[in-house]
Amino acid sequence: MKILVISHPCVTPINQQFYAEVEKQTGWEITIVVPSNWKSEYGGKAIAPERWPEYTGKLLTIPTWMSGNIPLHVYRATFTKLLKEISPDAIYVNHEPYGIATAQVYLANILSINRPIGFFTWQNIFKQYPFPFHQLQQFVFKRSHFAFPGSQSAKEILREKGYDGPCTLLPGAVDPELYFPRPESIDLKDKLKKSEDQVLIGYMGRIVEEKGFATLARALNIIKALPWQLVVVGAGDYQDEFSSQMNSFGLQDRVNYLGYVPHPEAPIYLSAFDLLVIPSETRENWKEQFGRVIIEAMACLTPVVGSNSGEIPNLIKATGGGLVFEEGNAEALAEQLSSLVIDASLRERTAEQGQQAVLARYNTEAIARQFVNEISRAVHTLS
Prior knowledge:
The mean pLDDT is 95. The protein is α/β, with parallel strands linked by helices. The longest helix is centred in the last third of the chain and has 19 residues. The chain is elongated and about 65 Å long. The strands form four sheets. The chain has a six-stranded parallel sheet with strand order 5-2-1-8-9-10, sandwiched between helices. It has two domains: 192 residues, Rossmann fold; 177 residues, Glycogen Phosphorylase B (Rossmann fold, 3-Layer(aba) Sandwich), CATH 3.40.50. Strand 3 and strand 4 form a beta hairpin.
């Protein structure tokens, strides 16, 4: 069977790993189309496509207009010629259903080969879109043979927006061969700690206001008498403001800013952390969609303290790999951080429970199997 995947996330090679697992399970011939240039959300830097070593299928690049803009980007190609040349048995558009690029591929399918086609969505807030995005979304809904929401809340929103077709959950996944407690993290931990008794509190992700950094600063000030060191991995426009807040509390020496870390190195840092903090805060147009770094940390035997924004509490409660606090509540965050900083045995028990749950329920092999089953169903139903 031949599968065509259109995916701007696959510009980042680790996101192709999922399809390498699908290849391994099925022997399917997979072709992935990615933008030839894509602006990163980390500082707007352009990402050049690279191949994941284990992915053996074709990786095609097409230039885009509005690179980096998920709803507005457009591929500078009609796709009709490409669809005829590849002649896939199914087409998976790994984009939100309201995006112009999604409708672009759907239209090309109608005008050329008319094969089973579907989309992916993380959206977990109901939004009324203006013209033409509402119309594009409805166009996609009516012509979809399958859909993959990334969370239960995204599935509920999808139904609320009017999609009534086949729908299969496809949450984030981790590869246990990549995400596991790394022995080299021991040296890294020693370098990051300023004293032997310090507990490393880690953060990995975008440094933006809605990720709850103001609340984190206040919480850390509350527990400043405890032995901890904060390590921030990532980049974003809120770093200067957060640094100023930490300085105002006299905590400037207790935070390390490491900047962006390549994906292959992420497990080393997650393994070095004694705990990971995810203090995200819901906004009118955003709430945490999943929090892949949560399951990545748990796979590395690192417990998590997360807010109750979006899917975070569901994920932590489902795995038992961490503690939840009320978003925006610095005192509640300080209490949960304090529990894990003080109690090493609690950190160990929580970490072990989280790792076991993640490896059982969120491993790449299991999630890929769900994808394979749904694509197979769609193809066989329409054949």
